[in-house]
Amino acid sequence: MSNKIGWIGLGRMGEAMVKRLLKAGHGVSVWNRTRSKAEPLVEYGAQLVATKLDLAACEVVFTMVSTTDDLKEVLFGEGGLVTGKTLPRVVVDSSSISQEGSAEIRQQLETLGVAYLCTPVSGNAKVAKAGKLLTVSSGPKALYDQVEPYLQAMARKVMWVGEGELARVWKIAHNTMFGVIIQNLCEITVLAEKAGIPRNVFLESINDSVLGSMYTRYKTPVLSNLDFEHVTFTPKLLLKDMDLGMAAAKAHGVPMPAAAATRESIARMVGHGHDNVDFSILLQETAKDAGLEIQPLNLKISDGLES
User: Which CATH architecture is the domain 5-164 placed in?
Assistant: First the structure.
């Protein structure tokens, strides 16, 4: 097993995706800014490297970081992946960043002779662990075909949507919808509970209706039990993505009134100091606005992700 794959960025998502690659038999070398977050992967067969430059000899390097600036830093900053004499053949980025930032990074990498594929994903760390991610890629089709086996190891479905930065547009649209759905789901759940329908009963009914989805089902346990400390995605990250969505809407001349209202709701939640908690704490905020004091139900409820 040779370590053809390098990986930069081992947050909740990155760690789960690397484990899927290792489980599929791929050799993976990993680097993370906080080394302690990378160390547990050694037990699963990953090779831990000391610097980003140590990954430059890998055939393909995946990156998954928080912002455009973070991605530029790990690639082009001091000691960055492509600042040495040896360069990787391919960089595959799965971060949630802007179309404009991605295009700028593509130009810099391709000038150096490094191929670049955008591959954002749909799903949180628990979805990744269960092997149920969706990956959506854009860039040269031949490059996508080359990388596809690695993507298949991490996801239940993989897609190519076109050239350039189109996958960034897809991810921005996806996460904007993500925000609007959680906003609406929290509103109607509070409405139902205040009117007298038990919260878990209402959520179960939605999951089994034509409106139910993998998303509503895997959020049902946390919305029922108010276990916001098990973080899948923070309010601050959701606000960043809503801002990307509104910027894209402005650039393309698309009115998005529901997204605009949701963006303000998420900004209010961030302003209240909710940081390292799950974004679904929005349910609690919505209940407070409605004068409803909600309590954890402490029920054993499936999130639909079990094998």
Answer: 3-Layer(aba) Sandwich (3.40)
